[in-house]
Design goal:
The structure is a single chain. The protein has about 150 residues and is an all-alpha fold. The protein has one domain (about 5-125). It is about 50% helix and about 0% strand. It has helices at about 5-15, 40-60, 75-80, 80-95, 100-120.
């Protein structure tokens, strides 16, 4: 892993560890013991399986309908940095490329962008608009399963 990637991940960890106090501490997004399941790995490859879990956790409404939404803080969220780091290392080891995973780096940058926005303006998080599992868009129903990290 190159120095810029290590610095990016260190920055992400720092931002996630110091998210504003108005975000609830929960464990609904918990990457502490995350491993992609075998079916997803077989269907999507290792990187694709991790990417899918990140999509389900951070943008269940899909990215085309809006940005990543950080609705909580806590150690389970911070553990996403370890998942990104491990996935980048695994993808690099399995490939002959000398660069790190563009997909995982984009996740790190996007998460930093959202976290820094919350640091600059903590009022961006409004609990009534970001209730767990209740992200709505026109014409869609809600689901209590949205955002949960698959096993």
């Amino acid at each position: 892993m190159d120095h810029s990637t290590l610095q990016l991940l260190a920055d992400l960890r720092s931002y996630l560890e110091t998210l504003p106090d108005n975000l609830p501490i929960t464990s609904k997004i918990n990457f502490a013991y995350y491993q992609p399941n075998d079916v997803d790995i077989k269907d999507k490859g290792y990187e694709g399986a991790v990417n899918h879990a990140l999509e389900m956790a951070f943008c269940p409404q899909s990215r085309r309908d809006g940005p990543i939404v950080l609705k909580e803080r806590g150690p389970g969220l911070v553990a996403v940095v370890d998942v990104l780091q491990d996935t980048i290392a695994k993808c690099r080891a399995q490939s002959e490329k000398s660069s790190d995973s563009a997909i995982m780096l984009k996740w790190a940058r996007d998460l930093i962008h959202q976290a820094t926005g919350l640091h600059r303006n903590p009022s961006l998080y409004r609990s009534r608009d970001c209730e767990w599992g209740r992200i709505q868009r026109v014409g869609s129903s809600t689901s209590e399963e949205e955002g949960k990290v698959g096993s």
